[in-house]
Structures are given as structure tokens and as C-alpha cells.
UniProtKB/TrEMBL annotation:
The keyword DNA-binding applies. Residues 15-69 form the HTH cro/C1-type domain. Gene3D superfamilies: Jelly Rolls, lambda repressor-like DNA-binding domains. This is Transcriptional regulator with XRE-family HTH domain. Keywords: DNA-binding, Transcription, Transcription regulation. GO terms for cellular component: cytosol. InterPro entries: Cro/C1-type_HTH, Cupin_2, Lambda_DNA-bd_dom_sf, RmlC-like_jellyroll, RmlC_Cupin_sf, TransReg_Diox_bact_type. GO terms for molecular function: DNA binding; DNA-binding transcription factor activity.
Amino acid sequence: MDPAEPVSRALAANLRAARQARGWRLEDLAERSGVSRGMLQQIETGRTNPSIATLARICSTLGVSIGRLVEPPEELGHVVRAAEVAVRPAGAGGQARLLINDGRAELWDFLIAPGEELRSPGHPEGTGELLHVNTGELAVTVGGAAFSLGPGDALRMRGDRPHVYANPGAEPVRFTMTVIYGGRQDPRYAV
């Protein structure tokens, strides 16, 4: 494979996306940038690589950096496969799975058995949590305030205070939670 091929593919896709996000046709970008429609079409289909000068004119017109237009797709998103997710015990018969994180936020999937509870001393200052109950009943206590949630309910809460997640029901409770760090990330789950 030509080493420039991944860059050409990224440039083609990113240029097309940037142009379309502005509602511009190839003709519109050509007129604004001074780069011919034919050249733009060849770039967007990956049939040619523009000179730096041509790329600079296109980027200036779109208001984006050259780096942004040649950014490979893997920099735009990252997939974590189910088999890669670590499962941690959560009480007797429960589990906590850190599905994905990016250094600023974490997405968790929890399963808590009936009668079980999970306690947290609180995360770093400025941390918040968003919870969504999928199945079962969830009782949450944070900083002395109590919340009862059922299937489909969601809660936004402070994560920087001691908190408890409890299952008061007769069935397991499954919920997803996003932890959003306002300052530094909890070192226990750092990327």
C-alpha cells in the first residue's frame, strides 16, 4: 500500500464533510477558494493529492487547519469492543464495567444484585455523574440527599461527594453512568 493512501482517504472524506457541513457545492468552494472544481472533485475522490499551496487555499476558505483536513479517521473516533471491556466485581453477584473513557469522562455499565449497595468516597472536586436506569430499582444517596429511580429514569448528580448506589428491589438493577471530571481525572481509572 502506498504510504500516502491513508492520508489521501482522510483528506477526501474530511474535505467533503467540511464542504457539506457548510451547505456548499463543489462550485461554491471553487469560487470562494480559487481552486478549480475539477481539482476539488479529484481531491474529494482521492484521485490526486494537492500541493501544500492548494491545500492552504482550501483550508483558509473553509476556516480549518491543514491538520484537521488530513486527520485520520481513527483520530475522530475510537471503538472499544465488548471483549476488551474489563469486568470488575460490584458487591455479591454484581459487576461494574468501564466501557470507555477519554481522560475527561468515563462511561460505565453497572449491574447490582438485590439488596446490594456500592459506596464511593467521592471523586475529585468538580466531578459530576449522569445515571440512567435500564432495568430494576436504584436508590442513590449523595451528600445526604436521597433519590429513587426506576426503569427509564435518569439522574444528574454531584460526583465529588460521598455517594451510595443501592438496589432495594427484588430483581437486579442495571444502569449506565457517565462520570465527567471537572478537574483532574480519578487516578484509579486514568487512561
